[in-house]
Design a protein that fits this description.
Oligomer: single chain
CATH class of one domain: Mainly Beta
Helix content: 25-40%
Mean pLDDT: 95
Radius of gyration: 20 Å
Low-confidence stretches: none
CATH superfamily of one domain: Electron Transport, Fmn-binding Protein, Chain A
Bound molecules: flavin mononucleotide
Number of helices: 5
Strand content: 25-35%
């Protein structure tokens, strides 16, 4: 029963039946496994498969999570872009570690990745910033992300000023805006299965850069 104060979701249930995951099917390299699953998600998902929840820690070791857009993956790690003065950036300054969670509902798959987090190079941030639509480029200057503001008027006023300032000019990347790369030390691939007996495999990076792969109980 759902009242005004409570939400009773006890009967919201689903059966997972989209596929299974076996050790012998897995790539030895978790980056390749991720690429395979990402490509499946691109075909299967109604929404953008690059939505990813990123978690960071504050000084009280309180975790904070928020969604960002994955904008790159290379042999080193997972890249997203943000404001270097935002709350998450301040947390990353003190605790340069993070976790990412992807959930692709249509495939009943989740991937968790965690490790250290570092800024991407200025050149990489410049190159990505240059590809953004002009409105988003101006937006990066307008928003002092995570700061308290009086209302939307403040944003619109600043937006109008900046549009005037950069009229007929290339919008440069703000120095306080750029990318972070998560360098994974652990991956986990989760495939939903019937009766909650899901398939889970973790990859843990070893000192020699190989990956230990093991099945986990759901
Ligand atoms: C679908 C979606 C995509 C988002 N993508 C980004 C992004 O790529 N970069 C970003 O800084 N914030 C993005 N946001 C906003 C963040 O969730 C968050 O509100 C913002 O980064 C401030 O977080 P912080 O105060 O913890 O630093 C996105 C939000 C949603 C819902």
């Amino acid at each position: 029963m759902t009242s005004e104060k409570t939400m009773d979701l006890a009967n919201v249930r689903r059966q997972y039946e989209k596929g299974s995951l076996k050790l012998e099917q897995l790539h030895q390299d978790p980056f390749l496994q991720f690429r395979q699953w990402y490509s499946d998600a691109e075909s299967a998902c109604r929404f953008f498969p690059n939505n990813v929840v990123v978690s960071t820690l504050d000084d009280d070791l309180q975790p904070h999570s928020r969604t960002v857009l994955l904008k790159g993956l290379d042999e080193k790690g997972f890249v997203f872009y943000t404001n270097y003065q935002s709350r998450k950036a301040q947390q990353l300054k003190s605790h340069p570690r993070g976790a990412m969670t992807f959930f692709w509902e249509e495939l009943e798959r989740q991937v968790n990745v965690c490790g250290t987090m570092e800024r991407v190079s200025e050149a990489e941030s410049d190159a990505y910033f240059a590809t953004r639509p002009r409105g988003s480029q101006i937006g990066a200057w307008v928003s002092a992300q995570s700061s308290v503001i009086s209302g939307r008027e403040e944003l619109h006023r600043r937006q109008a000023e900046l549009e005037k300032q950069y009229l007929d000019k290339t919008v440069p990347r703000p120095p306080h805006w750029g990318g972070y790369r998560l360098l994974p030390q652990r991956f986990e691939f989760w495939q939903g299965q019937a009766d909650r007996l899901h398939d889970r495999f973790e990859y843990i990076r070893q000192d020699d850069a190989s990956w230990l792969i093991q099945r986990l109980s759901p």
